[in-house]
Specification:
Elements (H helix, E strand, L loop, with lengths): L9 E4 L5 H12 L4 E6 L6 H7 L3 E5 L5 H9 L6 E4 L14 H29 L4 E5 L12 H21 L5 E5 L19 H14 L3 E2 L3 H12 L1 H15 L1
Parallel strand pairs: 1-2, 1-4, 2-3, 4-5, 5-6, 6-7
Amino acid sequence: MKLKTIEGTVALVTGSNRGIGRALTEELLERGAKKVYATARRPEQLDELVKRHRERIVPLAMDVTDPRSVESVAQRSGDVQLLFNNAGVAGAAGLLAVEATSTLRQEIEVNVVGTLNVTRAYADVLRSNGGGAVINIVSIAGLVNFPLFPTYSVSKAAAHSLTQALRLQLAAGGTQVIGVYPGPVDTDMAAGVPFEKSSPQEVAAAVLDGLLEGQSTIYPDPMARQFGTGWEASPRAAELGVAQMASSAA
């Protein structure tokens, strides 16, 4: 289904209580979405948004790593047309540190398995509602491993591969699958990242613009666009560039 407008659509956003997820929820409502299911482990954090938008926002508790939690929400939101897989986690363990194993497991569980759990639960819903779209918030760190957050990069590389697989899997049902690859964004998760950051609001607006333009890959901020263009031209050169940048910062 080729989407022409956000107005009148029904969306679900995971991890909508802060950062990009909250900005996406607000941007969808600003552009006239009929309803947004805003999910989070602690949906009470959405109380302020609920007061402002009342019946147009439906806060729901969801743990993306728990298939029963995901399925329970899916049964209560059968009108979803746009699914935003935004929930994510990032650890700070060095790759060879003992704690890196547990950090990576958690990141894989949320960033990859969680995305799969939610998409699986909504595949039939989207198809029955005309196809719609699945929008996965990945990262430029899923294209090249960034030494500052190596395990996170590994998990996002898996999320990138999952996005490609889902794109093929869901095409027959008319569902678009879109990968979003932000650079550094000014969120709690990126508080310690030493790069210039874009705002979550700028990223959210670019994501919805890209969705309406029919893009399958969205680089929603200046650093992401520059990096993505270079990576598409030469993945190896992009890898070497990141390595050189890490060496200079050491």
